[in-house]
Design brief:
The protein is built from 15 helices and no strands. By secondary structure, it is mainly alpha-helical. The protein folds into two domains: about 5-55 and about 290-305; about 60-235, no CATH class. It is globular. The model has no long low-confidence stretch (mean pLDDT about 95).
Amino acid sequence: MRPEDRDLALQLHAGLCSFSLQTRPLPGIQTIANREAFVEQLVESIRRIKYITVIKLQNHSSLRADPLSELFDPLKAAVLFQRQGQIDEAFWLVFLSIHFGKATRSGWRFVRDIYGCLGSGTPWTWERTSLHPDHFIQWLADQYTVLTGDGIARHFGNHRKYETLKPSSRRSTGVVVESYVNWVHPPRTHQMLVQEAEEQVGGDPRAMFDHLYRSMEEVISFGRTAKFDYLTMIGKLGLASIEPGSTYMQGATGPVKGARLLFGGSTNAALGRPILDEWLVELERDLQVGTQGMQVLEDALCNWQKSPGVFRRFRG
């Protein structure tokens, strides 16, 4: 653990012990090894979230938004577009970053090549794609052989490893993008979408997050993890004043195992998802790890259950 994180780790350790004694037992971290590994996963999750805060404040080269450049980064590009007032393009790049994910072996290459139209024409900007999603679908079909067989390494990220470009698939990237466009429903903008959510449920950031989360059911192949990751990233980048008020255990796998281990002492403990969500809300309130506290817990639990007694870094 880095020296600068030790005070935070001590705070989290004390908070977990206090919660276990005064609110609810946490049998999964009774052993010192498990407790230390879980605390380190919490610290790691907080660091990942703070990284987004850092890139919001940094100066970035314009090449970060240029898909022809090896420096292209969709999240930093979203920051640049947001600063320029191109809010729809910022949302769009966040969506693409979540749909494809950042692969361990090939980084953002998939996003870069598809957003950049393989360097052979006008990028698939939000304006171009949302006006003619059918053109985008056809282009992907035409380029399928190139994108999968030209020898350039392109991979979906770990959370998106079951996605496909295959034109015949009911959840191909083209179909996913078309459903996302339909969810935003141009000429409605992303900002208007968020404003409508606020009008319907009020300005509470957690209520708005929940409303948008449930409305995203119509985005094909965006299950629980993708919706959660997309909306939390929107919140962290400041594109919308939203934050999760739950870990959304329904549909989760890794986080559920982690929560069952934490509260029940085993990844197979007979604890239902609704009660785990309730208990995690209690824990998040006590730990006070920031506005994205539920994401901190969700991420940490998912990674911790893979190696509960020894801290290991995992990248989604």
